[in-house]
Amino acid sequence: MELPIELITQSIEQGDTVFFLGAGASLAGVPENSRVPGGNELMNLLKGHLGDLPPGPPLNPTLSQVAMYYEKLAQRSNLLKTIYNEFEKSKNADGLLPFTHSLIAKVANKTRKAQIVLTTNYDHYMERAFDREEVSYMTVSHVTNPTHPGHTQLSIIDENNNNEIIPTEQFDKNLYSYNPIDKPIDKPIDKPISIIYKIHGNLPGPKLIDQDMVVISEIDYYNFAAIHMQQIPKYIIQVLKKNNVLYLGYSLIDWDFRLFLYKSMFNGTKQLLTNSNRILTDSNRKAQWAVAKKFGWFEKIFWDKFGVITFDRNLEDIIPIIANNLDIKIRE
């Protein structure tokens, strides 16, 4: 099946697209020696700090299991600092941003329409892209530290690095006034505020480390599923239902992300998946496309159940084509 480039381009230009960025989106157009670490690279980095893992199962531990062991031996704060320092290295390499992030920021600048970006990535590529294009934005993540007074609330960081912790209900109220979902889009908003919703948390730096906004260890994933997944902002759920959704570079390896999709896309439907049929979705739901280098058989089955059309394509090839159709140069 051919990727509907023209349809996707039109959707983006009209401000009718929510972007879901996976790990693959952070690789497109970035030299290998300048990339942020992927999941396996980060796991090997942590294992290198720890030395030999205890004998016995699991023989092939996951990143979440290694992170949990690292936390036990070196404390949580040292785990977060190690990860933060590793991701900061990409800022000081050559300054190149991934094609995907540059495209989104340039679209925001050109159209003067707020862009909604959801991601499970820790990196700051999207913030840096918006900064470069002088786009107003806020980064939203959940405060996951159970000892923090703002636990179960949202941490908001704006483009000036101002931080506030607010209840989800307040965030929803603010966003409906900033970027009304039902407002006609024939006129650009004077100062649209783009949203970066970081599902698995943010790496804000040493000053805000007490908020602990990172989901990385096995326990983090359990807590996120049990607590924070019940607090997905209603604004996010609404924009997912009212807009086309473009998943870029996503793997479905994380079970909690699959649960997040079910919770956010079909929240309140009280409908069950069956073994043979797609989930019964709202007939008004718009298009959903997933683009990645290679989808596995399980991913294709999963996406299909949710009505998402998959395309095995290299983002380094696809994003420049979309940019060209929008008359945007992703690299000056």
Keywords:
332 residues, alpha/beta, 9-stranded mixed β-sheet
What would your notes on this structure say?
The protein has helices at residues 5-13, 39-50, 63-74, 76-88, 99-111, 125-132, 168-178, 218-226, 234-242, 255-265, 297-305, 315-325, and strands at residues 17-21, 116-119, 137-142, 154-158, 163-166, 194-198, 244-248, 288-292, 309-312. The chain is an alpha/beta fold and 332 residues long. Helix 11 (297-305) links the parallel strand 8 (288-292) and strand 9. It is globular, with a radius of gyration of 19 Å. The two termini are 32 Å apart.
Q: Distance between termini?
A: 32 Å
Which regions are unreliable across 5 or more consecutive residues at pLDDT < 50?
A: 181-189, 279-283
Q: What level of helicity do the residues show?
A: 25-40%
**Structural Rg:** 19 Å
Order of helices and strands: HEHHHHEHEEEHEHHEHEHEH
Query: Which outline best applies?
Result: globular
